[in-house]
Amino acid sequence: MKIRDIRLLPLQGETPDGGWDEKHLDRETNLHTLVEVITDEGVTGIGSVFTNATLIRGAIEVMRPFLIGASAIDPAATSERLHQQTFWQGRGGAITHAISGIDIALWDILGKVTRQPISRLLGGRYRESIKPYGSLLMDEPTRMRAPLEAGLSRGFRAFKIGWGPFGRRDRRTDEAIVKAARDAVGPEVELMVDAGGSDAFWPHGFKWAIETARMLADYGVTWFEEPLRPDDLDGYCKLTEHAPLPITGCEVFTRRQSFIEWIERRAVDYIQPDVTKVGGITEEHRIAQCADDHSILFVPHGWNTAVGLAADLQLVAAAPCARWVEYITPAPYIDDLLAEPIELADDGTVAIPDGPGLGLAWNPDGIERFTGGLTLTDSTL
Ligand SMILES: [Mg+2]
Q1: Does residue 301 register a pLDDT over 90?
Q2: Catalytic residue check, 97
Q3: What is the DSSP string of 120-136?
Q4: How far apart are CA 300 and CA 317, in angstroms?
Q5: Using CB atoms within 10 A as the burial measure, which of 10, 80, 138, 265 is most buried?
Q6: Which domains does the chain have, with CATH numbers?
Q7: At CA 185, angle to CA 20 and CA 224, rounded to 5?
Q8: pLDDT at 123
Q9: 251: CA distance to ligand 1 center in Å?
Q10: Are 13 and 370 in contact (CB under 8 A)?
Q11: Is the pLDDT assigned to residue 23 strictly greater than 80?
C-alpha cells in the first residue's frame, strides 16, 4: 500500500488563544492544520500539525519526490526516510512539523489495515484509561473561578493554568492567581501551573523560578511548567535538582535528538513533547521510552486538536508510566471535531480508544465548519 496523495485541511474560526502577542493570533489565524494521507488502495489516515498550512504546503513540496509512492503501512520507516532525505532543508522546523502530521496519519492507516489500535502496534497497552487535565489560560485572579468551575462541572479532576499575567507583572499577582485557582477547585483536585517561559523575551532566570516554585509548593501544585526560557538547559538542570515540586518542559522541541541531552542530564522531572510538532507518534514514542529509561515521566503536550489528543491517548496507553494527557477546555478544535464527545468518568479519567488506528470518529460538520467547507475523503477501511 503506497501513499498516493496528501491533503491539507487548515483549521480557522476557533483558533485557541496561545497566550502570545495578540498581533500573531486571533480566532481566524490558521495555526493548526489537519493532514490527510490517501493511499493507492483507497485507505486514508488523518494527522494534525501545529503549523500554518502555507508552511506545510511548502514542506510537502520539498518532500513530494520521497513522499508519493512511499509505503503507507511502514510509518516509522517512512517517517525516518523523510527525516533523512530532507536533512538539509527545514530540519527541525516546518519539515519536521509536516512529518508529524504525516506520521500520525500513517499510523492511523496501519491501524485500520491491521484492525488494531495504534497503542498495540507500538508494543502494547499498559492502561485502558488516563486522567485528562483541563488546560486553560490564566487571567486576573477574580476571573479564575468561572472557567475552573465550568471544567469541574464537566468532570475534570485536574487542571493546568498557564500564561496570562503570571510572571509578567509581580509576585503578588502570581500568588493571587494561584490562590484563586486553588480556592475554586478545592484541595483534592490536581492543579498544575505553566509559566509559559517559551513566550517571547521571557525575563526570568533561576532565582525567580526557585522562589516561585516554593510558593507553588505551598499551594500543593502538582508541577511547574516552563519556568525558564526553553533552551536554558543548565538552568533547568539546577532548578529540577533544587525545586520542591516537579519541573516540566520541552514542548517546543522537535526531533528526538534534541531531547537526548535533556533526558540524560535529568533537566526536567516530566517531559512534554508535542506530537503535532516533534515528528509524530514515531518520534514521540521513542522519546517517551528513552525518558522512561531515565525515570522521567512522559506527559504529552496537547494544546492542539482532537487528532492530536487521539494520538496522545494512544501514546500514553503504550507508555510504561503515564498519568495525564492535556485537554484544552473549552476547545472547539477538540470537542467539535469529534463525532461523539469524550466522556469523563466519576474519577476524572477517560477511556483510551481501542478501535483501529486512532480509534476516534470525526464530526464531518465540525471539519466543514473550521475548514471553509472541506470534507474528509471516504476511506475504504
Ligand atoms: Mg506549556
Answers
A1: yes
A2: no
A3: HHTT--S-SEEEEEEEE
A4: 12
A5: 138
A6: 3-119+362-370 (3.30.390.10), 120-351 (3.20.20.120)
A7: 45
A8: 98
A9: 6
A10: yes
A11: no
